[in-house]
Structure formats: C-alpha cells, structure tokens
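Hi there. Long-time user, first ticket. I'm pasting a complex I've been working with (about 541 residues overall). I'd like to know whether the download I got is complete or cut off, because the file seemed smaller than I expected. Thanks.
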Amino acid sequence: MSSLYLNRLSAEDRSNLLQELHTRQSGNCFICGKTIDLQLHKNSIDIDHVIPTTLNGPDNPSNFAVTHDSCNRGKQDSDLRVARIIARFDEINEGVATESRAANLGDILKAYANGSYNFAMKAEEKTVTFSLPEVGRNDLVTLPLYVDALSGFHFFFAQLPIQYLHHDGKMNPRAIGSNVKKLIKEFHLKRPQLHVALGWITLQGNDAPKVRIFDGQHKAAAQILLGTKELPVRIFVNPDLDVLLTANTIAGTTLRQVAFDKSVQRNLGSALLADRMQRYRTDCGLAEDSESFSEQDLQRHFKGESREMKKYILDWIRSSITHHKDNKLRDFIEYGGRGSEFPLSYSTIEKTFYSFFISSDLLSTRFNHRAEEGLNPRQLEIDQIVNLMNIIAEEIFVGKFEPAIGTSRIENKVSKGEDIPEPHLIAYRMAKEEIIYNWLRYIKQVIQMAFVNAGTPFDENAPLQKPLPTNAWNNIRNFAISLKQLPLWVNRDMATSVFGGKRNNDFWKQIFEEGQTPDGQKVLGQRLDLIKMIQPQDGQN
Ligand SMILES: [Zn+2]
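Hi, the file is complete. Here it is re-exported in full:
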C-alpha cells in the first residue's frame, strides 16, 4: 500500500490524520474490530486504503482506515472491507473450536440474526399465508404454493428475515469450509449466483414450525456475513424427510456435488439408520422406543435396500466410536484428509481400528440384547474399541504429539537436523498408516491370547463383542509402552531410509517379523517378541 498522500504528510499531519480516523472508527481496528490504543499501540498501527488503489480506491483520507499492523499484515484480502468480514468469520470459527468443531450456518445466524423465531404459517391447496409479527410486520402475506413435478413435494419461494431461518444440522452436518471466503469476495464484488437456499418446514405434529435450511449453507452464510438481512429460500412444506435426507446423502457421496468427508458420510448413514428404525417400528406396530428387533430384521424388512441397510448400520457403529465423548484419540484425527496438523487421517482409522475390530456381520440378536447386564455385543464392541483407542492415545499421543508442529515434511526437517521433539517424532512415525496397520495386528493377537488363556472362544471376525479379560487391557498397555520405547522411532538417521516416503504394509510387516527390511537393512535388533512386550516394562514412563 504505497500512498503518495501519506508519504507527503509531515509527522504532525500524520498524527492528526490518525486521530481523525481513530475517532471515525470509534477507536477500533478496521479489520478485527478490537480497540486501538493510540498510545500503547503507537508503534504497531497501520494506515491503509480501505479500497485498494488498484481497484480505483482514492488516495485520500476518505478511503483510509487505521488498523493494528499485525491485522493489516495478516489480512486475507487486499480490500479491507472483505478482510474485515473474513476476520469476523475466523473469529466465529475460533469461538466454536472449543467444542471441537468448526462453524456452521447456525453459528453465523446466532452471530448476525437479532433473534430467532418460529415461522407461523398456513397452507391451503395452492397458497401459503404467513405473517412476521416478531419483526413488527403484521400484514398477512399470501404466496403461491407449487408442486415439484418430479418429487410431488409442495414448496413456495419467500424472502425471509434471517431471524426466521434455522440451520438443519441433522440433514447437513457439514461445517462451513474456508471456500466461503471466496464466495464472500465474489458476492462483495456484486456478482450474483444462485443464492436461493433450500429449506423445509413441517406443519404436522407437535414440533414448533421452523424453517430449517439444509442446502445452500455456504452461499447463505456468505450473504449473511456480507450484511444481508433477508434471504431468498425455497421452502418445502411437509416433505418426506427421509427422501430429503437420502437425496442430501447421495449428493454428498455418489454424486459428489458437495465435498462430504468420509466421517460426515458416516454421520449421515447413522441418521438414515435411525430413520429406518423408526419406520420399522411404525410398520410393525412397535412402541416408539422399542429395540426388540435385530440388525438382520432390519435388513430383511427393507429388502430393496439390503446392501444400504448394512452400510447404515456400520456407519452408525463407526460414527458412534469416532464421536464418542470419551474418545481421546479423536483429537488426533485429520478429518478433511488434506490437513497437516494431526497424525492420523480418518481414512487410516477406518483401515486399521475399524477394519480390525468392528464386525461387519449383522447381528441376529435384538438391539437391546443383554443391554441391562452390560453385555450387549454392539455396545461392548463400541465401548471396547474406544477403550483401546484411549490406551493408544494416552501412551503415544496425548501431551506428546504437538499439533503446532504438525506433520508437514517432518522427516525432511529431521534429516536437516531440525530439533523435532522425541515424543512428537515417535507419535508421528507410529501413526503412519502402513506402520500402525502392522502393530495394531499385534494388538489383535494380544487380545486373542487373552481370550484363549481365559478359556473363552475367540471370534476372529468379532474380536471385541465379548468383554475382554481384565489382564488383556494391561497387556495391551504394556505392549504399547514396549513398542514406543523401541529405538527406531527416534533414530534420526532413518529419516531418509525406512521413514522416507510411503511404504506398503508388507514392508513393515517384514520389519516387525524379521527385524529387517525386505532388502536386508537392519531396523530392529530382532523380531518383535510379543510375549516379552506384554510384560510390565522397566523404566515405564
Ligand atoms: Zn486489529
């Protein structure tokens, strides 16, 4: 931001200008909106063009703003009006980060809509009528009600104050991605797109009538962030929610219209399972909370989609584990797939923990089978996998892996002699997919041995549906401790050899089984000795 105008100012004129801008902005930084103290921030203040001169912003005080200089340096757009909006979005995201999630439309509405209201309306055969008394608009508005030719759903178009909009987190569990920043910029430049969001309302039942937005979240959020107070919406009236949910899932999976990451797909699958269970109960005249039917019953009942039913059930199990409130490993999983902050990708979790320990055979026992004794096979499977993940998390990741250091080019840094802390390096290396895949197989053996020693038959395909003998948990922990103490994890010379680049599963299988790589390079002193490794270790930490 070179400014001829600013360069020509005397120190005194500059100080007067600063004072004037400061007053005009009520004492706040133009970008972050927080206080600027002219004395305390004396040496860390910037004056910049609001509209950059490259976009024909004038080079005079009418187009100047005062900012913290760090805000100006870190700004995400050269146009300060856009930079300010993006900063606000980032702030909303940080606000919900404590809940281990990123912001969605609901959070944007909370921050920008002055109130949150139900939508009282009447539907006739061809019209809908509503009123907006909560915002002082008491006149009755009547609009045409249309029928969607293909689905047969009724819908109407309306432009509604944002106070009447709600985020549908069940139908659309995604967070707002950073691509919203591009939309903000685009809309700011006054280039319109298909702005209409999709919503639904149900006028039956006891639920308060709410307009819930389930599609078009990013565009809606961008408009609201830019200060729009009313949004155009296509609203389905009393739609078959199951159809909408399925349509939305298909859009995110098969059609790839929206980028759902895998763990979000699992969430949707588990919502679909809940819906099928509800339908099953209605069809069979069961009580609303009945669980006296089995996974196999569901699959038989919904014949036309028996493959999907199996998928929904497995999605529900995976989702229950991933989002389990006690799961300590979930903070070390990269859900987006491309990030470089966390050591385990979600896809690695599926290919290791879930593929080894979740049984994909549908159960013939009822959903509530032996639940009261704590012996329900699925519940045991879920709880014991969480337990297993927690032991791994505690021994290898928690307080050891540092997200601030992350995973980007670690081996490269090690080979250049950069000081990556040992616990971080151990966690990083042990988390590589082809490596964890192999050592988790040993843990499965530890579990098998425990069952066999206790005289309980071991089911290879459903290893965790029966309660593990107590000593098995100690053995698993001892194994994890022995494993992480192996010298190879901190051997910095191996950064360019065994740890350089991506290897396949067999490469590491051979290292663990024979102590050396397929081409004879010594990595361990000897093969892994399972019996020795499950003994309590000296010098435990
Ligand atoms: Zn600032």
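A couple of notes from our side: The chain has four domains: 4-75, 105-242, 261-323, 324-533. The pocket of zinc ion is lined by residues 29, 31-32, 34, 67-68, 71 (CB under 6 Å).
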